[in-house]
C-alpha cells in the first residue's frame, strides 16, 4: 500500500506541470563554417570553398577545415563520419591516387573562422592527432566522400558535445613540386559544397535486410539492391521506379518512441523547385516483394496506402544522407511488428507526369555500401502493451515516452494521432488491468484519471516532468489516453497502453 500511494502521489504533481518539447536526436550535422588556409597563412572568411592540395591557382598549397555545432546532441555518439563533396569534374592529379587525412584543430575557433590564424593555422590543419583518412582516385570524381572517424576522432566528438567541433584536412601525398597539380574538392563554394558530420548515437540503428525497386511494368530484379526512385528517361529497363526497404526489428524488445529512415542519396535530378519523397506502408506479402513476383500490384503498393512520412528535397543543398522522420502511424506499426520484418515503400510524389523529364533520386546505389538504416529511439524502461482504438479517419492514437526513471531524470509522455481539439483523459494505474472497454482495451487499472485535457492542433499532448525520488526499484506503472472522438466506434478513441519499470 505504501508503494502504491507513493507512486500515485509522486506523479500527480509533476503530470500537471507544463508541457515540454521532446528533444530530437540529430543524425546528420551540417557545417557551421568551412573553408581553407593557403601556404601563406591566408583565409577568406567570406568563402566556403574547401579545395585542398596543390591547385596551381593563387597560392599553390591549401589545407581545409570544417566546423560543426554539436549543441543539439544530448547523448553519447557511437560512430561519426565526415561527408565531403569532391565536385571536380575531372581527376585533378598527376598520380593515380592521393591520400586525404583529417586532423584535430588546436587553433582557437574565432581565429580559425576570422582568417587570423595565419601560418600557424595552416600548419595546424595538416598536423596533430589523426582522426581519419581517405584514398581518392579517379573513381571519386563528382562524388560524396565518406571518411569514418577513428577512436581518437570519436572521443573528440564526444568531448565536444554541447559545443563546437572542428576538423582540419590535408593531402599527405603531394610531391612538393609547386608545378604539379594535385588537388580535390573544387567547386565547393556555396550550397553545392554541402558537407556533414554524420553521427550515430546510442539510438539503435538497424541496417536494411533488403532493398530495391519495382518499375512501372511490375518488374523487380531480386539480385539488384539499387533503390532508385522517380523518373529516369535514360535508364535501360524502365522510366518510372518506386523503391522499398526491409528491416529486421526482431531484436527490438522495448518501446520504439521515435524512428528515422536514414538513406544515402547518391544521385539526384529534379525540378528547381524540388521534389517530395514519400514513405508508405507495404501490404504486399514479403516473399512476393523480395522475390520479384509482386508485379504491378507491388509497384502500386509502394506509392500508396498509409503514409509513414515524407521528405522535401530541395535544389541546391540536398544532403548526402536523407533522414525521413517516421510518423506516429509508422511507430505504431513498428511497435506492433512483434519480431516480424518491417517494410516501407517509397515514391517521388511530385513527378510532373512527363516521361521525358528526369526526376529521380538514389541512382547509382546498386552494389555500393550505401547507408540504408532505420534509426530507432528505443526506450528500454518502457514497454508497449498493445494497440489502441481508432478514431476519426481510422487514426489510432499513439502514446510514447522517454526517460530512464531515475530520481530527478526527465521523463516525457507524448500523445500523437489524436483528434485535434478533442477532450482527452489520461489514465494512470499501479496495476495492469487489460480489460475490454468501449470495444477497446483499458490497459491500466484506473487509479488516477486526469482530464479533460485538450488535444493540440497537431493532434498531440505532451507532458514533461522530473521523475520523483524514492520510487522503489522494479516498480511498474501503467499509462493510457482515452479521447472523445465522434469517429470512434462508440464516440471514443484510445491510445496504446504503456508500462514503465524503474531500474
Number of helices: 7
Q: Give the N-to-C terminal Cα separation.
A: 20 Å
Count the strands? 32
Q: Could you name the CATH topology of the largest domain?
A: Immunoglobulin-like
| Number of domain modules | 3
Rg over CA atoms, rounded to whole Å, is 26 Å
Largest sheet: 11 strands, antiparallel
Question: Ranges with pLDDT <50 over ≥5 residues?
Answer: 13-26
What is the 3D form? globular
Describe this structure in words.
The chain is mainly beta and 503 residues long. The chain is built from seven helices and 32 strands. The strands form five sheets. Strands 11, 12, 13, 14, 15, 16, 17, 18, 19, 20 and 21 form an eleven-stranded antiparallel sheet that branches. Strands 1, 2, 3, 4, 5, 6, 7, 8, 9 and 10 form a ten-stranded antiparallel sheet that branches. Strands 22, 25, 28, 30, 31 and 32 form a six-stranded antiparallel sheet that branches. It is globular, with a radius of gyration of 26 Å.
Amino acid at each position: 500500500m505504501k508503494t502504491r500511494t507513493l507512486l500515485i502521489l509522486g506523479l500527480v504533481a509533476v503530470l500537471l506541470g507544463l508541457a515540454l518539447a521532446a528533444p530530437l536526436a540529430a543524425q546528420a550535422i551540417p557545417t557551421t563554417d568551412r573553408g581553407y588556409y593557403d601556404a601563406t597563412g591566408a583565409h577568406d572568411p567570406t568563402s566556403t570553398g574547401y579545395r585542398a592540395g596543390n591547385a596551381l591557382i593563387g597560392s599553390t598549397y591549401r589545407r581545409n577545415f570544417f566546423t560543426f555545432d554539436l549543441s543539439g546532441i544530448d547523448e553519447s555518439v557511437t560512430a561519426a563520419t565526415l561527408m565531403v563533396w569532391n565536385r571536380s569534374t575531372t581527376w585533378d592529379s598527376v598520380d593515380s591516387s592521393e591520400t586525404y587525412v583529417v586532423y584535430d584543430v588546436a587553433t582557437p575557433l574565432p581565429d580559425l573562422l576570422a582568417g587570423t590564424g595565419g601560418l600557424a593555422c595552416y600548419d595546424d590543419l595538416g598536423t596533430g592527432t589523426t582522426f581519419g583518412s581517405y584514398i581518392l582516385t579517379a573513381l571519386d570524381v563528382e562524388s560524396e566522400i565518406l571518411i569514418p572517424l577513428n577512436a581518437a576522432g570519436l572521443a573528440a566528438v564526444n568531448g565536444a558535445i554541447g559545443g563546437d567541433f572542428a576538423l582540419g584536412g590535408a593531402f599527405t601525398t603531394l610531391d612538393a613540386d609547386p608545378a604539379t597539380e594535385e588537388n580535390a574538392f573544387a567547386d565547393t563554394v556555396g550550397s553545392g559544397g554541402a558537407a556533414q558530420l554524420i553521427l550515430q548515437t546510442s539510438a539503435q540503428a538497424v541496417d536494411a535486410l533488403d532493398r530495391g525497386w519495382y518499375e512501372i511494368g511490375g518488374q523487380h530484379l531480386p539480385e539488384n539492391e539499387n533503390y532508385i526512385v522517380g523518373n529516369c528517361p535514360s535508364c535501360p529497363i524502365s522510366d518510372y521506379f518506386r523503391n522499398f526497404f526491409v528491416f529486421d526489428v526482431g531484436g527490438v524488445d522495448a518501446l520504439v518512441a521515435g524512428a528515422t529512415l536514414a538513406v544515402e542519396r547518391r544521385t539526384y535530378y529534379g525540378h528547381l523547385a524540388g521534389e517530395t519523397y514519400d514513405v508508405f506502408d507495404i501490404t504486399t506479402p514479403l516473399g512476393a516483394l523480395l522475390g520479384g513476383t509482386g508485379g504491378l500490384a507491388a509497384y502500386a503498393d509502394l506509392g500508396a496506402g498509409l503514409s509513414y512520412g515524407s521528405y522535401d528535397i530541395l535544389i541546391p543543398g540536398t544532403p548526402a544522407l536523407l533522414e525521413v522522420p517516421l510518423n506516429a502511424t509508422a511507430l505504431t506499426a513498428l511497435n506492433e511488428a512483434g519480431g516480424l520484418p518491417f517494410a516501407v515503400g517509397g515514391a517521388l510524389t511530385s513527378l510532373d507526369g512527363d516521361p521525358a523529364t528526369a526526376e529521380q533520386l538514389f541512382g547509382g546505389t546498386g552494389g555500393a555500401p550505401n547507408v540504408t538504416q532505420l534509426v530507432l529511439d528505443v526506450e528500454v524502461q518502457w514497454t508497449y502493451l498493445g494497440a489502441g482504438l481508432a478514431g476519426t479517419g481510422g487514426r489510432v492514437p499513439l502514446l510514447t515516452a522517454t526517460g530512464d526513471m531515475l530520481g530527478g531524470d526527465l521523463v516525457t509522455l507524448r500523445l500523437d494521432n489524436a483528434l485535434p481539439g478533442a477532450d482527452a483523459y489520461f489514465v494512470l494505474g499501479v496495476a495492469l488491468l487489460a480489460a475490454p472497454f468501449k470495444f477497446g482495451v483499458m490497459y491500466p487499472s484506473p487509479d488516477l484519471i486526469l482530464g479533460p485535457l485538450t488535444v493540440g492542433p497537431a493532434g498531440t499532448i505532451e507532458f514533461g516532468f522530473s521523475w520523483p525520488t524514492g520510487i522503489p526499484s522494479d516498480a511498474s506503472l501503467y499509462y493510457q489516453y482515452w479521447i472523445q472522438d465522434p469517429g470512434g466506434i462508440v464516440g471514443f478513441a484510445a491510445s496504446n497502453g504503456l508500462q514503465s519499470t524503474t531500474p
